[in-house]
Amino acid sequence: MYARQSRMSRKGENDENRVPPQSRPNRHGLGFLRFSSYGHGSMTIEAVIFDFDGVILDTETPLYWSWHEIYARYGASLDMKMFATYIGGAEYFDFHKHLEELTDLRIDRQRLMAERQRRYRCLVAGSAVLPGVVSYLSEARGAECGIGLASNSDIGWVRSNLEEHGLFDRFDVVRTRDDVTRVKPDPEIYLEAARALKVNPQRSAAIEDSASGIRAAKSAGLFTVAVPNPITKHLRLDAADLIIDSLDELPFERLTELVERG
User: Does residue 123 sit in helix, strand or coil?
Assistant: First the structure.
């Protein structure tokens, strides 16, 4: 079942130092991790809490391209690495103002935003649930593990997209920017999700893709797995406990052992 070799990378590891998942030492260097069944007494992970944008659906690459197309129309370019730094955080970037500064033109903000939003929603509508997400939801449910979601987006955006893919009811708790006073990178949203799930954050895991999300989850005490997408791969994510290319590379059983060993 787990014959596929992992391409996991821990912070500080280079590609040439990667080893198969069955023999990789944990982050404290305390021996080697082994797979075991859900029935094993030490399997005490209490919850998995997912980010939404970039983790459940890659909504961030379409967001970049919706702006990129508009910039290109005006003969300007939008740097992807610069764009990535504003992903998943509280800091606001005025793309309209930036485009005007680059082009020295006055641009109708209302018309531009309406057009850009239509294009964005069209691109997102064609997005598939990211690899490994559905199997994680199933395995977490089978392990009687709490399933939560913590997103800086608003509930309307999160709920509509989850419902479109038949996933909303698979989460025990969904918390968004509407439920907190401080969004990521502040830990409040993860602490609120853990409180609603009635779990100990230090016995739980977060699945994130951005630097601000990782900071929030780690500050809340969760074991944090980073799964970068084509946009957030440009960010420094080495504050995460583990960095992988896809959830498919990290069997749920292995995550439970990683959380157990801390």
Answer: helix
Residue 238 annotated to the active site = no
Q: Copy the structure tokens of residue 154.
A: 């608003």
Which one is catalytic: 51, 186, 209, 241? 51
Q: What is the pLDDT of residue 230?
A: 92
Topology, domain 23-58+129-261:
Rossmann fold (3.40.50)
Q: Which of 53, 58, 186, 209 is catalytic?
A: 53
Q: pLDDT per residue over 67-78, tens digit each?
A: 999 999 999 999
The model's pTM is 0.79
What CA–CA distance (Å, rounded) separates 214 from 217?
5
Find the helix or strand (DSSP H, E) in which 70 lies: helix 60-73
Residue 53 annotated among the catalytic residues of the structure = yes
What ranges make up the beta strands (E) of 89-247?
146-150, 173-175, 204-208, 223-226, 242-243
Nearest Cα residue to 37 out of 143, 134, 136: 143
